[in-house]
Structure prediction request, 424 residues.
Amino acid sequence: MRNIDYFRNKKVTIVGLARSGIACANLLFDLGADVSITDSQDSALVRLNVEKLKSKSIKVELGGHTQEFIKGRDFIIISPGVPDSALPVILAKQYGIPLISEIEVAWILCPAQIIAVTGSNGKTTVTTLIGKIIEASGGKAFVCGNIGNPFCGELSRMGPADYVVLEVSSFQLETISEFKPKISIILNFNRNHLDRYKDMLEYLEAKKRIFMNQDSSDFFVLNNNEPVLKELSRQVKARLVYFSETSEFNPNQSAVIAVGGILGINKEKILKVFGEFKGIEHRMEHVCSINGIKFINDSKATTVDSCVWALKNIPNRIILIAGGKDKGVDYNLILGYSRGKVKEAILIGQARQRIGAAFKGNIIFEESASLEEAVKKAFSKAEPGDCVLLSPMCSSFDMFSSYEERGRVFKEIVFDLQKKFSIA
Prediction:
């Protein structure tokens, strides 16, 4: 690590006790900081996370936030998803305390080169593939951020010759200050997260922060097919590298090839990685078939565009399970791709009524109170040759702790169905 004395004897409060918060707390404790954590939740899962902290001297408050945990701190470290309206954010601004994200903390300490990937869709796939092409060329890559292990949790294993391939969301970029990746990538820009941002311009401003500290020694990779992103080229100080979809490669693959070119990785090795890549968990993941009915877990599809991509790439007729926490997106955008493809939809979660309003008169649908009920309904409506597709178009936080948990629960329900029918 570099700058190992940066946080020594500093008083820091971490807001949020999920994976990144735990990793950050343990790291800063090891580096000699006075660490506190505050979390608005007080659940069995949160209390289980408390047990993962290295020391009882890390002070913890659960079930709400108090002034005591904010006032007099040197830094307030915000976990992804903490809104501006949260009390710790308001108090930190009131007291003039710097607000930074977990990736900013890790950046300050990181000895490795950072490749940061953002965009509305495709981040996880591209981040994963970049990590694989680096490893295929003999390098060492740490895939972190919204996938893999938390950035802070991997720092002790990194060296100057290594790479961190970091999936970053607009939420994480909001509170960076000095974060400066060697290579930054914006894959695309679509309607998303309008439950958090007042409009698309504010959402774009958050995304743009990925390159704000870059200079002429760095690289900025962007999609040549998206006019909004091409306009950003006027604001960038880093060296520009463009990618675009071709007849041979989809946009995600083209982005990976562009990064490989910057790193000097042989294209044959990149193509070999593409050929061997089996996809990522929870993204178009084939679970199993029961009585000739396919089940596909696409829990990672938290936008309408991701669901459209699934509809375009599944040849079967589909019983769609959709819904979750509404992100303010336009569900009407799916209608043109659903005709002749989606037989029926089962809607769940907080957004089910909004999605239903968009589907009315276009897609037959009904609501379910739980994911388990939705899977069983979908199975009862499907016929051999059909596909039951979980592609929510929404985040998971109304019913689950993450899209990973939602996907795992979906698979467990499907496997239980499979056992029942194999016994029968």
Residues 403-423 form the longest helix (21 residues). The first strand starts at residue 11 and ends at 15. The domain at 11-97 is CATH 3.40.50.720 (Rossmann fold).
